[in-house]
Amino acid sequence: MRQLAARRRHPLATAMLLLLALVVTGAAYTAVAPGQADAAPTINDAEGDVDRGQELFLANCATCHGLQAQGGTGGPSLIGVGAASVDFQVATGRMPLAQQAPQAPQKPRVFDDQDTADLAAYVASLAPGPAIPADEYLTVSEDPDDIAAGGELFRINCAMCHNVVGAGGALTQGKYAPSLDGVEPRHIYEALQTGPQSMPVFNDDNITPAEKQQIISYLDHVNTEPSPGGWSLGSIGPVTEGLFVWVGAMVLLIGCAVWLGAKSS
After folding, report:
1. Are residues 141 and 197 in the same domain?
2. Which Pfam families does this chain map to (predicted)?
3. pLDDT tens digits, the chain, 265 residues: what are they?
4. Which of 70, 99, 126 is at the close of a domain?
């Protein structure tokens, strides 16, 4: 007992107890917190040929991303980005990059579906990463509750860059948030998962697959909803649209006044 009491009075006893508490807390959190693999149980791997994907990668991508996809001066590492990132970048035509720029623009795609699947399969084979989303979360819901929930999620997480109706907007240093009108549900889901360009990553811990589907449903709703006024003016908001019409009317009236004055003199 005397030895135990003496150890309790040791100067390092408090520090050791704190260290032990931190270790136990960390181990408990690691055991309880869901991992990435557990958070996305419904995502399937891309179907493609890994060997052919490697051949395509070496011929078309290795110059910028390195022979082992480890990254280089012209492009980032692709290890761990997953099949979803490759499918988004290649299927939307953003990759291969046409030229160095602040942001990769969307353009006509270079690779067909099979080539894209092969490239995605090869990159996915390098390390675990987000996979191609399952079809069950890409179906647009017409349930008003889902659309309303998706609208709330979009306004909280996306509207500050993409506009409240996904019309897009300018960012800093020559970058921009593109319009989401006409974007396929699969690519919206993949962008949320992988965070391309300046976009943050919304993994399944932040926004669940069901919530991603609600966002997709909301964007489909606002993109297909008819404009009550007949002309949306880019859906930039009622105040701005009203100001645009008011300025146009004033310019027309001033022009008429100037023309009448010149005619009378």
Report:
1. yes
2. Cytochrom_C, Cytochrome_CBB3
3. 556 566 666 666 777 777 777 777 766 655 655 444 444 433 444 478 999 999 999 999 999 999 999 998 888 999 999 999 999 999 999 999 888 788 888 889 999 999 999 999 999 999 999 999 988 899 999 999 999 999 999 999 999 999 888 888 888 888 999 999 999 999 999 999 999 988 999 999 999 999 999 999 999 998 888 766 666 666 666 666 777 788 989 999 999 999 988 887 7
4. 126
What total number of domains does the chain contain? 2
> Is the backbone peptide bond immediately before 108 cis, with ω within 30 degrees of 0?
no
Please tell me the distance from the alpha carbon of residue 76 to that of residue 59, in angstroms, as a whole number. Answer: 17
β-strand pairing of 169-170 with 176-177: antiparallel
Residue 194: domain span: 135-224
Residue positions forming the annotated binding site for heme c: 61, 64-65, 158, 161-162
- The conformation of residue 10, written as its DSSP 8-state character, comes to S
Cβ(166)–Cβ(219) below 8 Å:
yes
